[in-house]
Specification:
binds ligand L45E5XJ5; 604 residues; six-stranded mixed β-sheet; alpha/beta; five-stranded mixed β-sheet
Length: 604
């Protein structure tokens, strides 16, 4: 872990359900390769994950079973370790490349900018040559101008110990927000292609492995599942998904399951399958983990675990300790991360937050909502273009622009990027009638279906993030519970200990998936967008409010949502188009505004 990371807290744990074939899964790590320095549950770093993988490989080899590592994309954008370097990703690409990942694919974030998809093409794909899969993703080669697959479309391999023949694909959901140097083919089209149709007819396969930056319960995965099942009704299929930042486990049929392993290096997913045929080895060293061999061939069994990313969990799952757990390689990568964080001055403090501000753990609006803070304090203080200073303005931003919580205490360079990693600037349309402008937010948040045909839905690009509505209310006493607690199997099962708050996931296999037994946390949904009204004439009474409304306003918005703003304006019967828009506050972006606001308002 990083030197300044919060030490992990002991907690009752569920064991890893080892099988014949085992997987470790990361997804949507978004540059959090240093781990969460302020959160004990997630404070392990990528170096610790390397040690974990190496220790579990040792165990797998000893027992003659297999272990594969999978990553399903969105490795970038969302943390100073990635976003603060020039060029972006200067350190994280190398840090990520230290892990021995068997199958990986791209997420949508790798494709927002030409530079980031070129990083994939020139660095990550070669680093993981043969393992990086791009089943429905092409790039325009910067040198030749030719469109070509970002990486190979699929791969076939045989596992080392068990001899399981695996055929793997790597997909991205039907993403449309990519820059102009990549081409994402709709999954439903890709599966009609000759290469795919031939691949799924291969009879020499024991397991289809579909990794994707795709949520588990989507048309994309449903189409791939159906296409494979049409050709092979009983071959086992294992999906690994991502994008929605949740822990999830889906059953498609008795031989097809999917796992999604959260976000931001909070979760290492563990998945195991027993009862797979081992066609790649005639006299395979088949370990009978759970069932007699004959029965295994007929019906595989599946298990999953969501490991909290901290050293307490890692030590327990490897039966090792502080001294025996870390490998030399793991330690070296932790040092690489520490040096990178130092070079980037990520711990430099801009100010100190007086309390916690939550993205989804407080209702919006409320005093603990990060969105209320942005709307009521930051934007009104900061959004002003000197050339338009006297004009009242309405500022709209997508809530997705703010990515993570602020914890009470030091607000650092790193925090700036965990909260607001994007480089989007502001644009505006001048002198929009207030009668029109005031209706926009409602339209964007209600997603009027006629306005957003399926392919253009905001829900697609601006999903409700990271939220699985919970019916539980968190016990406030437990919110900051820390310190040691008694540990033991009996305690764990009886819940006879004070539990730390954390993920309490319910999925298709029930509610015993999390490795750490936690007290539940309540998550709240937030709207797609919010609005600040700034420089409006002040009204003294309720009655005078309406007459004080301005006739027209400058309609200011973060540039990421321009196309939605223009669509919504069309829906309202206007004919505003791109030609009517212009830059507002040249050279400024949300990240910079937040950093400046914190420096000016939150002294330590
Ligand atoms: N320049 C950008 C890019 C993305 N966003 C927000 O992020 C969302 C996508 O992130 P996922 O981790 O969910 O893939 C996107 O829907 C936007 O909300 C942004 O604000 N600016």
């Amino acid at each position: 872990a990083q030197p300044s990371a919060a030490p992990p807290v002991s907690a009752p744990l569920r064991e890893l359900p080892w099988g014949q074939l085992n997987f470790l899964h990361t997804t949507d790590t978004h540059g959090w390769h240093a781990g969460h320095l302020q959160e004990p549950s997630f404070s392990a770093d990528w170096g610790d994950y390397i040690s974990l993988a190496e220790r579990l490989h040792e165990k797998a080899d000893k027992e003659g079973v297999d272990l594969l590592l999978v990553d399903t994309g969105d490795r970038i954008e969302g943390n100073g370790l990635y976003d603060a370097s020039i060029p972006r990703g200067f350190y994280t690409l190398k840090i990520f490349g230290e892990q021995d990942v068997d199958v990986l694919c791209s997420g949508n974030h790798e494709l927002y900018k030409n530079t980031s998809s070129e990083n994939e093409y020139y660095e990550t794909v070669p680093d993981f040559l043969g393992n990086y899969l791009a089943s429905n993703l092409d790039i325009i080669d910067p040198k030749t101008g030719q469109q070509r697959p970002l990486a190979q479309r699929f791969k076939k391999f045989t596992t080392k110990n068990q001899g399981i023949r695996v055929l793997a694909f790597g997909f991205l959901f039907n993403f449309r927000g990519n820059s102009n140097n990549t081409v994402v083919q709709r999954v439903q089209e890709t599966i009609k292609e000759k290469w795919f149709q031939e691949a799924i007819r291969d009879r020499e396969v024991d397991l289809f492995l579909v990794v994707g930056h795709v949520p588990l319960r989507t048309q994309e995965f449903a189409s791939i599942y159906k296409a494979i099942r049409e050709q092979q009704w009983d071959v086992t299929i294992q999906f690994f998904g991502g994008h929605t930042h949740i822990r999830d486990y889906a059953k498609y049929d008795s031989k097809a399951y999917g796992l999604e392993s959260g976000r931001y290096m909070e979760t290492i997913g563990f998945m195991s399958i027993n009862g797979l045929p081992t066609g790649g080895k005639s006299n395979s060293l088949s370990i009978d983990i759970a069932a007699p061999r004959a029965a295994r061939a007929a019906s595989p069994t599946f298990s999953r675990r969501y490991i909290d990313n901290n050293l307490f969990s890692f030590h327990q799952h490897t039966d090792l300790n502080d001294t025996t757990f870390p490998t030399e390689h793991g330690r070296n990568v932790s040092s690489m991360i520490a040096l990178a964080r130092e070079a980037l001055k990520l711990d430099k403090t801009y100010g100190c937050a007086p309390r916690d501000y939550w993205t989804n753990r407080a209702p919006y609006p409320s005093k603990n909502s990060i969105f209320s803070w942005l709307q009521d304090e930051v934007l009104p203080d900061m959004v002003l273009d000197v050339d338009r200073a006297d004009v009242p303005r309405m500022v709209l931003t997508n809530t997705g622009a703010l990515r993570f919580d602020i914890f009470r205490g030091p607000f650092t360079v790193d925090t700036t990027y965990t909260v607001s990693p994007f480089t989007s600037g502001f644009r505006y349309i001048k002198d929009v009638p207030f009668s029109i402008a005031k209706r926009l937010l409602q339209i964007i948040n209600q997603e009027v279906p006629q306005l957003w045909p399926a392919s253009q839905s905001l829900a697609f690009e601006l999903p409700v993030r990271s939220v699985e509505a919970s019916t539980h209310t968190v016990d406030e006493r437990l919110l900051f519970a820390g310190g040691q607690m008694p540990l033991g199997k009996d305690h764990a099962l009886d819940h006879d200990v004070e539990l730390t708050p954390g993920y309490t996931t319910t999925d298709d296999a029930g509610s015993d998936g999390d490795d750490t037994i936690h007290a539940p946390i309540r998550f709240y949904r937030v709207p797609n967008a919010l609005e600040s009204r700034i420089g409006f004439p002040s009204a003294t009474t309720e009655e005078s409010k309406e007459s004080a409304d301005p006739v027209s306003v400058d309609l200011v918005y973060v540039d990421f949502i321009e196309s939605y703003i223009l669509l919504a304006l069309k829906f309202l019967g206007t004919d505003y188009a791109e030609r009517d828009t212009a830059v507002y506050m040249e050279g400024r972006d949300m990240t910079g505004l937040i950093a400046q606001w914190v420096q000016e308002h939150w002294q330590c």
